Amino acid sequence: MFQSDLMNGRTILLTGGGTGLGRSMAMRFAELGANIFLVARREEPLKETAGAIRTKGAKAGYALADVRDFEAVEKAVDAAEKEFGAVDTLVNNAAGNFIARTEKLTPTAFTAVVGIVLQGTFNFTLSLGRKWIAAKTPGNVLNIVTTYAAADCGSGFVVPSSCAKAGVLSMTRSLAVEWAKHHIRLNAIAPGPFPTEGAWSRLMPSTEMQEKAKKHHPMGRFGRHDELADLAVYLLSKQADYVNGECVVIDGGLWLRGAGEFNDYLDVPDAAWEMMESARRK
Ligand code: HXC
Ligand code: NAP
Predict the structure, then answer these.
(1) Which of 2, 100, 149, 167 has a beta carbon 3.0–4.6 Å from 118's, enabling a disulfide?
(2) Which pLDDT value is given to residue 206?
């Protein structure tokens, strides 16, 4: 689908790039020629992913930082620049989330998730955005949100995440306009369910829940990481230069299923349809 040198000469900083979807995007960007710089809190996954990228012949580095801490964020950006010269692309992928009844949450629990998702995204965007503007060089930002933010519907039981992701989407659209004159482009991807250890352990911990979710899905399956990684490549590519402030949903039609009043008729078996149809004909 893409030329193998599509991302040659690019340097991409990914937050949360050592695990899950961040890792899959990093591997794909590297395969297409980009230099990769990963940032997260735990060293082991970062080291492993950077190693896997280098094994494939691309360049990778990493720094440890909590995205909530602006000073640590600035140090991570400095480290990336030291390693690769300059960073031209930012993927805000790090997130925190868990399922909980909202009335049982503490204010600290809300702050933890909003801090990682919303403040963390702002911290990296601010740090790199200022540099791009000062240096008069173009920049490219991709924010990973969720369908409950993109569809403006929110979601029960993940209220801190829902509030934070909606904020990230608003930031994406606001800055797409404000920073367009600086040749900085911002877009978002809203993924549906993609199996990862981080998300599944916190949001869909039992096989029973996973099977139920799959059964409810119009396509009967979860997303594949390569499907999301290729969408990210497109949005970051030069070919998407006129796409700005957009949020692309990639969920196989799942949120639309929830939106349509009669969509649960999907569960009606053919035999029941035939009975209804023959009753109508009488
Ligand atoms: C209620 C919880 C909780 C839970 C933590 N807290 N887990 N409250 N239910 N399950 C509370 C704690 O009690 C504490 O409040 C506060 O949150 C902070 O907890 P810490 O463990 O000290 O925070 P921290 O170390 O910063 O960890 C952040 C985290 C953690 C979000 C809580 O889960 C994390 O590090 N997650 C990162 C990875 C992740 O979440 N990946 C999934 C992304 S998936 P008190 O008051 O007790 O001190 C995703 C997909 C969405 O976003 C869509 C799917 C389809
Ligand atoms: P994941 O593997 O748990 O990814 C989250 C990453 O964020 C981890 O690598 C984690 O690394 C990092 N992170 C968390 N808190 C951090 C902090 N304070 N500072 C720095 N890094 C931090 O989960 P995932 O499923 O791949 O999620 C990736 C993105 O996709 C997230 O934005 C998520 O909201 C979004 N998403 C996922 C799904 C899905 O179905 N999987 C659906 C919709 C949206 P450390 O713990 O080492 O810091």
Answers:
(1) 167
(2) 92
How far apart CA 50 and CA 95 sit, in angstroms, is 20
Which atom number of ligand 2 is nearest to the Cα of residue 68? 18
Q: How far apart are CA 245 and CA 18, in angstroms?
A: 26
At 56 the pLDDT is: 96
Helix (H) or strand (E) run with residue 144 in it: strand 139-144
Q: Which residues lie closer than 8 Å to 171 by C-beta, 6 or more apart?
A: 118, 121, 122, 125, 143, 186
Question: Structure pTM?
Answer: 0.97
* Helices first, then strands: H and E counts in the chain: 12, 7
Residue 15 beta carbon below 6 angstroms from any ligand 2 atom: yes
Domains recognised in the chain with CATH numbers = 11-281 (3.40.50.720)
Distance 66 CA to ligand 2 centre (A): 12
Structure tokens at 12: 């991409």
Which residues, given as ranges, of the chain have pLDDT below 70? none
Q: Please give the distance, rounded to the nearest whole angstrom, from the Cα atom of residue 97 to the centre of ligand 1.
A: 5
The catalytically annotated residue of 62, 148, 242, 265 is 148
* pLDDT value at residue 281: 80
Q: What pLDDT score was predicted for residue 1?
A: 87
Amino acid at 184: I
